[in-house]
Amino acid sequence: MKKLTPLLVVLMLVVFLGLSACSSETSDQAVAQVDLNNLQSLPAPQQSEVLPLRIAIAAVISPEGTAEGYAPLLAYLEEELGRPVEVEQRRTYAEANNLVETGDVDLAFVCTSAYIAGREDFGMQLLLAPVVHGETFYRSQLIVPAEGTAASIADLRGKVFAFTDPVSFTGRVYPTYLLQEINETPTDFFQRTFFTYSHDDAIRAVANGLVDGAAVDSLVLDFALARDSDLGEKIKIIHTSPAFGIPPVVVGPNIRPQLRVELEAIFLNMHKNPEGIDALGALDIDRFTLVSAVLYDLVEEITASVASKEVLP
After folding, report:
1. Do residues 77 and 109 lie in contact, with contact meaning Cβ atoms separated by under 8 Å?
2. Is the pLDDT at 4 greater than 70, yes or no?
């Protein structure tokens, strides 16, 4: 009998170990059986969180009026977008602008001066604008108590006057411009001034005899007169400004292009279906339309003139 060489011994050992491993693996597979009668469903994959659309609404009217008027519009946006809508309302126009600048909101309803300031400060962009009574314009109207004798702003010397907001064009900038035209300033001309921080509160202050005059947004005044038949007997309009570009809907400079296109489409088509028409009607808006920044050139010119001559009160 021949002796086994060391190489042959090694080869035999390798073969033996390989057969043992296969046998062991086959044995393990035989033990690991699957019970088809006791199958369990895999856990459903977690859905990604749906982010809300965030909107800032400048305090053109009081918080109560804003909540009532904008509610149908917000509900419409939720339905069209398929995601929730959250509203951030701030007391001042400057605070609303800050939300746009920091990206804490996706779009905002602002006044004309706030748009001009935001455009210059951080690149605020026009999205579109409302059409009201067939126009994309509005005016500043100077109002006084109906029983008063004032016929122009010059007749309010030494009186108490209500401004709406430090940034408001119709409620603060334009009446200040009128005083500059007669070489006066609010501080020297009026006995006292204060801010109401909404146009409807300024209207009520005049109607209730709390102040001798105020300058307000003509759209808000029309809205108030249409809903309160007695209001027309308590106030009178003594001055109406030229037409200015209507307060727009704006977005920040870093808005996602896809979201911008989606929002434009929703707003531009609101007047084409019953739900959208109802939402527009609650705000006394005909429809929304695209506008050019040229619409606000006169606002920018007057705002710059006022800022160059007087420090904000």
Report:
1. no
2. no
